[in-house]
Design the sequence.
């Protein structure tokens, strides 16, 4: 089980993509609300929104400034991060 303190503190989760250190932002309550809204628009928009919202550089700045710019996310990065992002929304529910 993940560290409950890290989950509650919304500490970002570090990971690497092609040797580049990145972080995943843990979801807040507002993220959950906005994720529901993004899903209502459509799957492509929801995925772009999630990548925009959760993929951060090592300084904690979003790698993609908007969901629209996240549409240009490399497919390898999207394939790696989407399952990880989905798991963050399930964290602590067990």
Sequence:
């Amino acid at each position: 089980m993940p560290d409950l303190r890290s989950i509650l503190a919304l500490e970002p989760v570090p990971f690497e993509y092609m040797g580049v250190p990145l972080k995943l932002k843990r979801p807040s309550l507002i993220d959950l609300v906005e994720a529901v809204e993004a899903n209502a628009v459509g799957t492509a928009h929801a995925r772009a929104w999630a990548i925009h919202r959760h993929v951060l550089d090592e300084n904690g700045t979003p790698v993609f400034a908007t969901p629209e710019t996240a549409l240009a996310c490399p497919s390898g990065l999207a394939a790696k991060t989407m399952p990880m992002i989905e798991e963050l929304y399930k964290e602590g529910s067990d």
Observations:
- The mean pLDDT is 94.
- The domain at 4-90 is CATH 3.30.2220.20 (rbstp2171).
- The chain is about 55% helix and 15% strand.
